[in-house]
Design brief:
The complex is a heterodimer of chains A (234) and B (491). Chain A has eight helices and ten strands. Chain A is of the alpha/beta class and 234 residues long. In chain A, the strands form two sheets. A six-stranded mixed sheet of chain A has the order 6-7-8-3-9-10, with helices on both faces. A four-stranded antiparallel sheet of chain A has the order 2-1-4-5, with helices on one face. In chain A, strand 9 and strand 10 form a beta hairpin. In chain A, 50% of the residues are buried. Chain B is mainly α and 491 residues long. Chain B has a domain of 343 residues. Chain B is elongated and about 105 Å long. The chains are: A alpha/beta (234), B mainly alpha (491). At the A-B interface, helix 2, strand 6 and helix 3 of A face helix 1 and helix 8 of B.
Amino acid sequence: MLDAIEVTKQFGAKSALDNISLSVLPGEIYCLLGANGAGKTTLVNLFLNFLQPTSGSLQIGKLDVVRHPLETKRLLAYIPEQVTLYGVLSGLENLAFFSSLAIGEHLPRQRLLELLEAAGLPRQAADDRVATYSKGMRQKVGIAIALAKNAKALLLDEPTSGLDPSAANEFSELLVRTSNDGVTVLTTTHDLFHAKQTGTRIGIMKQGRLVEELRSEEVSHADLEALYLKHMKS
Amino acid sequence: MKTMQPRPLSTLSLIVLHEARILVRDRTLLLVCCVLALMVGYGLFVGLAQATLRDRMVAQVLKHQQETQTANSGMLQSVLAGQTALIPFSNPANPAAMAGTLSGRYATMPNAPLAALAIGQSDMMPNYYRITYLSKVQFMYDTEIENPWNLLSGHFDLAFVIVFVLPLLVTTLGYNLLSAEREHGTLRMLCSQPLSIATLMTGKVIVRMLALLAIAIPVPLVVLLLIRPEARGAEQLVLMLSWSALVAAYTLSWFAVAALVNTVGLSSSTNALIMVALWTILVLILPVTMNLAVGLVSPAPSRTELANRTRVATAESLREYEDLYSADYRYASDPEALLVKNERIEVPSRMRAFFLAKQKVDERIEPLLKHFDQQLLQQQKLVDRLSLLSPAMLVNEALTSIAGTDSRRFLAFKDQTEAFHKEWRQYFSPRILESRAMTMRDLSSLPRWHWIEMPGSEIRWSIWWRAILMLALASVLGGLALARSSRRSIE
């Protein structure tokens, strides 16, 4: 469903991604681990066509993201590390706008409230202006937007970084439920525990390269940590 | 999962509605629209006041002309009946007196129906001349002659609001079209949806442009239709349509500039600086530079030279007829000499000399005046060509054409006045030279002034090519902005 084929991305002389190839199958949760600057977010940005690859290609559902930017975005939902919304609008209004943009139709208020509730936002906060929201609350509106889209693939860039442990756990459960419905998930994270707990496959990136790729049931928490540290120190 | 079909129109309408809501919520739009409404209102008020003043001036001189005509008619009847004492220089039976001080006609140019839309040169150029047998140098060239661009500045009228203020308000609303979304982080959220930056930018421009144009276009036109009945004709409606198209194209071109600047990917503050710099260059510096260029390439006619040559020509002409100036004192002791006999009258030699001398002055000065007018015409042509370089100049020219306050209409008025002055002299010349007394029939058949309006097709053409040029400029800039936006990375 998500395919990066021999992708290289250079910013001037600096190589952010170096001939990376990876493939995420339908129903898989692929967790990308790596230190800051390893190229995880760059890869996500390339899938979103926010950046164009220097060489290689990226495909979503066999469609090239550069040649078919709008079609591929219809298949995708994206939750960034920091969900930024319109502060002068309420959470409900933000969800209504982004979901209309995503699916091309207006969802009824009741459905929007259900989505916010499913994402974990308290119902009484739905009509408050987003400017008054905490980072975690904005993140939950972001999740609701992704849910509203009912996409075939989810791109998540450190989605739990702003969430409290309980909310992060709920989010992980939500992710698993979503993947069980056949949705493909590619998520970047620094959280080894989260990666092991939710991921079906784990990739470790270093300096723009995919240095390790393994199935999460093949390793324990401790082994994953040791492997990660080994790659980071080498 | 249902398959979505591309729905660009509905995406665009979503963006338009969303932008409208955001701009209303943060009150930016309200503030900018209030400022524009105030300025449009004041600019229109100034234009209406100026047009009303000129209407009154024309009405007053025509009333004065009518009163003089009635008084002269009564006086002539009385003189012909021998009931009034004869005064040499105020005798209505004397054609030289009627051609000069006693009568005279006013050549008037009425306001164009849409005059309130732009003051243009109407507060610098006269809209009436008093026609007598005097030299035209005395009544037509006694105002300061300036380069047309000098005449264009200095009014806070509606044209000023459109040409100078509107681009600043476009800058206020458009400097951060994309940069604000990028800086707030919402651009990533937006662009992760099936939405192109071109659609996003188009939606943003539509909302802002509609908000500004909803005030700038209908308010003046509705006020004009309500206040000035002469603005309600079919021809005027076409001109109003042209005016609307021109204002819309000018606004669109500034929004296109803002969109283009936003595609560079700089910060909002840098974008604002660039926009203000562009405004300063295109609206202020370029016209001034072109003014200097026009002055250098085609210098303004020398007013001093004209004055000196006129003085010399007058002195020479007066000298030519000086022997006729000495015989008038006998009328004091012999008033009977001024009586009309067999439809003949003795035209006092001083008056005859004056008439001939003034005619001679015009003959002598004619080549210089032609050269003078030629220079002005060359300047105007140069201004027309150079105006292509600045949208502000281009639009200003078209706005004044629509309002009928442009230099071409005033030049047409001047030409018609010259022709009428000639006709006036030709009417009186045989009467003065052959000593034919004025009759009641003569008085009612004096040459009459008729203003011939410039052909509508000529005005429409001069407006439409400018509007089309503005629209083309907006399309090119907008196209460039959209093309750049489709190639730009979000990061």
